[in-house]
Design a protein that fits this description.
This protein has helices spanning 15-26, 64-72, 86-95; strands spanning 2-11, 32-36, 41-48, 51-58, 75-83, 106-108, 112-117, 127-132. With 134 residues, it is an alpha+beta fold. The model has no long low-confidence stretch (mean pLDDT 95). Bound molecules: zinc ion.
């Protein structure tokens, strides 16, 4: 079951600059910054009530974030939904005909298991499913 929007991911060119802007916007500093080497990204997280904003900067030219910005420019990159059991959700969505980009959930930022649903199935929006690692 999809529980809620966990966070919205925003692709940025320069994380340091974006952090300053979002700190002013939200009135609080990021509660966490983290590099995810497997994804080639540097991230920072802001808490806004129950929801979070994740800023993502490419840490290498091959990063999916670098490619995204090249194609579309900075902006909303993905919407992440919290799920209780990511493996069950993957099976359910595959049955419904969705293309899951990584069938084996991987460890993402912020202590989560994550997988992505291809945007061609979701009217252009990259969807992340994430499950808290307990
Ligand atoms: Zn995310």
């Amino acid at each position: 079951m999809v529980e809620k929007i966990e966070h919205i991911g925003i692709a940025v060119k320069n994380l340091k600059e974006a952090n300053e802007v979002y700190e002013k916007l939200l009135g609080c500093p990021p509660y966490k910054t983290e590099s995810v080497e497997s994804e080639g990204v540097n991230t920072s997280f802001f808490q806004t009530g129950e929801s979070k904003i994740e800023l993502l900067e490419a840490s290498q030219p091959e990063s999916p974030i670098a490619k995204f910005i090249e194609k579309k420019g900075e902006g909303i990159h993905h919407i992440a939904f919290a799920v209780e059991d990511i493996k069950t959700e993957i099976k359910r969505l595959q049955k419904e005909g969705f293309k899951i980009i990584n069938e084996n959930p991987k460890k993402g930022a912020d202590n989560k298991l994550v997988c992505f649903v291809h945007p061609k199935n979701t009217h252009g929006v990259l969807i992340e499913l994430c499950q808290e690692i307990t």
